[in-house]
Amino acid sequence: MHSGTGAFDTVTDVGTRRLPGQTTYDPQAQTYTLTGSGLNIWHRDDEFHYAARQMSGDFMITAQAEFLGDGKNAHRKWGIMFRRALEGDSVHADAAVHGDGLTSLQYRPTLGAETAEVVAPFAGAHTVQLERSGADIIMRAARLDEPLVETGRIQIGLDGEIYAGLYVCAHETDVTETAIFRNVRVDVAAGPGVDGYEQPSPSRLEVLDVATGHRRVLYAGPEHFEAPNWSRDGQHLLYNQEGRIYRFDLEAGPPTVLNTGNVQANNNDHGLSFDGTLLALSSHTEQEGRAPGSQIYVVDAGGGVPRKITDQAPSYWHGWSPDGSTLVYCAERGGSYDVYAIAASGGPETRLTDTPGLDDGPEYSPDGEFIYFNSTRTGRMKIWRMRPDGSGQEQVSFGDDNDWFAHLSPDGTRMVYVTYPPSVQAAKHPPNERVSIREQDVASGAVRVVAHLYGGQGTLNVPSWSPDDQSIAFVSYTYGDPAI
User: Tell me: the pLDDT tens digits for 167-192?
Assistant: First the structure.
């Protein structure tokens, strides 16, 4: 980050007939405020205010924004721009949202040429994304609470090192307009064949205000970490990294390793009991006379010597019963992955699902009335629920996308889950994908998108609601600078 202007170190006005503009970055809210004038970004010459950085290779920028005030001209615009140079007649492509809602991919294909555009099939985009992928420049856009969709794809001379960033244009030379940009992310996608583990991706620990969709990065680093849990007192987060569990204190800062004895091959299936006193772990285990694999352990929430609960592998924890007596988990037995339950003190396991297909991610509702899980039994991965004894299994999420890992809010009225596009195989939840986080009302079934991100496996595998029902914690990934 650049102290005054966040991710962007080139802040400038492009063109001559305009009032001076300004960019400010609020490090606490992690928002950008851009003020600019300028006649237009159109025809053969552009005038606007620009906050950018020079970038090479493949990358994408995603942002949400809104204008302050009613504005003078309906064609004022905010957006994301890739630009060859800072002169007004430069080759460029930009994802533009106009004051009247017109949403389009604008571009100047050659130096000094007339500007062209690809108009989106809808107006009033709330989020836009601009990506360079090889020779392609791709625009995606979404209205409030809706998924990102591709709205334009072009090929122009924007290879090599270019400027990339945010802009505002007033469409007037004697007026300035101001827009606030939120959830700005500069992401570098993984290359072909990169799985996220053999070549670990840098990570961001983020918090999302579910009502507003506003995100903040709490911690970022080159290490690959996953699956945050929120403590029941609201004071810290737990996540796994390289087999260890880390504690991140929300006030004190840098993460510290939680003591889990010799259980040090922990994966991204872990979580706290409802009373906050115990932590369930899933950890790779070598044991004599049995196949190695993930087993479930329980340890004091503050750390200590874990107790092994399961005997068969693989077993992946996903939920505690509200009274702390039972654990539910996904396990592979005889070639089939199903949902199982076991006493928190150990003992025989009980199989709760037996329908062909993958059943995964079981989690109790806070009132203990249901276990929510995800299943491919209808072709797509969708959210289901059942009674704690396995009866009454019913589908509760619908559509063509693939929904994974439903987590119920502490008051039981809402759930959030990660959604993959239909292009991803239903039974897979890989890393390095463009995914969304969706909120669903438990009673009505109404669904809305609350975050667009680059992530997937490790993003939201485990319960991560704040105890006040307001926020969730999750992890996003990039193969670039994770701090931006």
Answer: 999 999 999 999 999 999 999 999 88
Instruction: Report the chain's C-alpha Rg in angstroms.
Output: 24
- pTM attached to this predicted model: 0.96
Domain count, the chain: 2
Instruction: Identify whether residues 333 and 407 lie together within a single domain.
Output: yes
Q: Are 169 and 36 in contact (CB under 8 A)?
A: yes
pLDDT for 191: 86
| Residue 440 CB partners (closer than 8 Å, separation 6+) | 383, 396, 397, 406, 414, 415, 416, 417, 446, 447
Residues 316 and 177 in one domain: no
Work out the number of other CB atoms within 10 angstroms of the CB of residue 135: 11
- List C-alpha distances in Å: 412 to 28, 371, 384: 30, 12, 15
Query: Are the C-beta atoms of 208 and 451 separated by less than 8 Å?
Result: yes
Rounded to the nearest angstrom, the gap between the alpha carbon of residue 298 and the centroid of all alpha carbons in its chain is 29
Distance (Å, whole) CA 117 – CA 451: 27
Tokens 């079934």 correspond to 445
Q: CB atoms < 10 A from the CB of 300, how many?
A: 15
Q: Which amino acid is at 123?
A: A
Contacts of 130 (CB under 8 A, 6+ apart): 60, 61, 80, 81, 82, 93, 94, 95, 137, 138, 139, 164
Say if CB 58 and CB 454 are below 8 A apart: no
By residue range, what is the domain housing residue 373? 203-477
